[in-house]
Amino acid sequence: MTASPQLELTTAPFLHRGLSTRRVMFEVLASLVPVVAAAIYFFGLAAVLLVLAATAGAVLVEWAFDAQGTRALRDGSALLTGVLLALTLPPSLPMWMAFLGGAIGIGLGKTIWGGLGHNLFNPALVGRAFLQAAFPTAMTTWARPGLSFAEIRPATLAWPFMKPAADVVTTATPLGLAKFDHQYTGLWPLLAGTTAGSLGETAGLVLIACGLWLAIRRVFDWRLPVSTLLSVAFFSALLRAFGGEAYPGPAFMLCSGGLLLGAVYMVTDPVTTPLTPRGAWIFGAGCGLLVVLIRVFGGLPEGVMYAILLMNAVTPLINRYTQPRVFGGEGR
Amino acid sequence: MAALRRTLTFRHGVHPDEHKEATCRLPIQRMPFVDEYVLPLSQHIGRPAKPVVRPGQRVQRGELIAEPDGFVSSAVHSPVTGTVAAIEMRPHPTGRKMEAIVVRADPFASQRFVRRSDRPREDMEPDEIVAAIQRAGIVGLGGAAFPSHVKLKVPPGKRVRFAILNGCECEPYLTADHRTMAERPRAVLRGLELIMKVTGAERGYIGVEVNKPDAIARLREEIPDGMPITVVPLAVKYPQGAEKALIDAIFHKEVPTGKLPLDLEIVVQNVGTAAAIADLFATGQPLIERVVTVSGPGVRRPANLLVPIGTPVRAVLEHCGGLLPSTRQVVLGGPMMGHAQKDLDVPVVKGTSGVIALDRLAPVTDEQPCIRCGRCLEACPMFLNPSLLATLARAERVADLKEHHILDCYECASCSFVCPSHIPLVQLMRVGKALVRERGSN
Ligand code: SF4
Ligand code: SF4
Question: In whole angstroms, what is the distance from residue A318 CA to residue A292 CA?
Fold first, then answer.
């Protein structure tokens, strides 16, 4: 033999599809670029600052509590949590709150569970739920979109724990308008992103495109967003059919609020959602039902966050009862 | 979509890169004889064969040197004319040392196989044919090396209606079956006819993945008039060559868990095995050589070789120009289910379908926590939950492992192939299966 290379012994398979958790996270992050760009387009510098603040909080806590040094940081999941959290925040939220939300999201949402893969609840939504509980006013104050890019509202730069100046020109979100004023925003503004709302939730078309891209590349399980959206459509159509015009129709329900953002980016978090295909259908159906119930009958106009968190809690149970049927086993 | 649906396949599975282009057009060539051959007594699933020769004894090419020890056992023959040099422990491709008969070739012998006059006849009774196949040492050549005669003997009260030949060759790099079908379609079809005759099957099927159009065409051309044999083109997917997946692909039927294809009145054999059976009846030649694909980025001259069983892997690689210095692993079999070697003196055995030299390690070194993405579930052809089974295996929860059907796993490694967290799932399946077998009886 010309040269006798040093041969190594490992076990089969000797090929791998080449996917890594890091790669999965970065594919999702890459798909978020247009969403963040839309947020910046509609909400200006405030969007940049909030994304930076939330990710800084998330990444800092991940780093501080990572027993393996910086290893966990490299998988990109903390970064993803930070960006996702930022996208669920109102544009006029003070930066320090976003930072705190990111820190709590990773700390209470992931680290204390044992890190990546072990958490029960979606960390970004844990961060958001914390902010909603701690700062209910700031979390429901909606700045009107369409300021010039560099214009920063004083609230954004408010000092931590100081009362922010009440200077925001506020407005209502389409869901608020629908719930409290029975005014329905048209479909086009909802899809085009010209309405008020959280940073990443208003540009419907962008979210749909990103979702399709992720589904085609099989980055996530398409059943999860599809079942969620189908379920919302089904239950709101049901209400319409039996409850009449007083209830919002399916198209409005689907395109307003955080539903598209949640369906594409939160419902599809593999860790906190069922891993069996049948479980995915059940999870989505449950999310959709809860979204409709909370939005229509609850005290708040929006319900996506609570719907997903509640279903996260049920996920282990769903997994348990939807184990796949073995090939050649009973129950085809 | 309609076109996709028309190409049959099984459900789940994975799509590794095929890597077949280096060898799929290379005709099978004979590997020259070497000085020494190592013939492990265990080259098949079941009990090892029993030697019937002594050191120092002269043997002819094709002569029986070890006989089957029981029904689930198969014979071994000398691949060359020469002398028995030793019967001793030698490295085996599975990584252990095993008892083997070492035969030194006679440098002056012609090494031409002499056509036997006592070859088995096709008009023999099925039982006699089955016995002849066992005596000829014919085992499954697809990789698992299950003794062929065991599957061909239909137990009383059972019957076989369909005989399937497995021509999928779904493992990356391998093209030995492809070349056999393209170059020797008649032998393959003769073998299938014999299998149908022995088992009483009414219909024969040959499942071939559509990446071998020439093989499909050649087989179709050569089907004798009136023979109820169908060549079934199948979509390209791994592990379609696994018996249960193949049956699912062709018949859309699931072999019930814990049962065999026989329970669906089906028998499955590999195409190379069929050709070996045909050769046995044509010339009396027992299984003393097989087609091996030598390929991979570490091989200078990839080839499809007809290799005498027992040839050291080192000699096979040297014949192909040797290894490139960048080679990191030499795998016997395919890269999904094969075995890595550190000792190139191991012999080619009956189950060796390929010698694959790879230049980089599979990146399964950096294990991350399971992110429960479900990719392993979508890959598993047995519809298992590898992520759950891996956790249960680590926790040694034997009862739960059994309940979640770990014994149905046939270690195809599809789950490991897709896992983005690089969890060694198939190894954990092996651990889990061993646990259940050891302690699961209660
Ligand atoms: S493929 Fe790997 S990471 Fe995904 S669920 Fe299976 S074991 Fe977990
Ligand atoms: S669990 Fe077993 S049968 Fe299923 S993919 Fe993994 S190795 Fe293959």
Answer: 21
> How is residue A299 written in tokens?
């005290």
Percent of chain B with pLDDT over 70: 97
Taking only the tens place, the pLDDT of each residue in B153-177 is: 999 999 999 999 999 999 999 999 9
Structure tokens at A244: 């009449």
Query: What is the ipTM score, two decimals?
Result: 0.89
In DSSP notation, A236-266 reads: HHHHHHHHGGGSPPHHHHHHSTTHHHIIIII
Q: Is A15 left (phi over 0), alpha (psi -120 to 50) or beta?
A: beta
Tell me the range of A159-173, B61-75, B107-121 where mean pLDDT is highest: B61-75
Tens digit of pLDDT for each residue in B100-110? Answer: 999 999 999 88
Ligand nearest B407 Cα, by number? 2
Closest listed residue to residue B415, CA positions, set B172, B171, B235, B239? B239
Q: How far is CA B135 from CA A84, A204, B68, B71, B207, in A?
A: 68, 71, 7, 11, 28
3-state secondary structure of B342: coil
Q: Outline where DSSP puts E strands in B176-288.
A: 203-209, 229-234, 266-270
Core vs surface per residue B64-89: b (16+ CB within 10 A) or e: bbbbbeeeebbbbbbbbbbbbbebee
Maximal C-alpha separation, chain A = 84
Q: Determine the distance from the C-alpha atom of residue B42 to the mean position of all C-alpha atoms in its chain, rounded to a whole number.
A: 15
CA–centroid distance for B178 within its chain: 13
pTM attached to this predicted model: 0.91
Q: Is the pLDDT of residue B6 over 70?
A: no
Helices (H), chain A: 21-43, 45-64, 71-74, 77-87, 95-109, 123-134, 136-139, 174-181, 187-192, 204-216, 223-243, 250-255, 259-261, 277-297, 304-321
Say if strands B303-308 and A142-143 run parallel, antiparallel, or are unpaired.
unpaired
Cβ–Cβ gap A7/B420 under 8 Å: no
What residue ranges line ligand 2, CB within 6 angstroms? B 379-382, 384, 386, 409-415, 425-426, 429
- CB-based burial of residue A314 (10 Å sphere; 0-12 exposed, 13-18 middle, 19+ buried)? middle
| Residue B379 CA, closest ligand 2 atom number | 5
Q: Which residue, among B371, B392, B418, would best test binding to A if mutated, counting the most A CBs under 10 Å from its CB?
A: B371
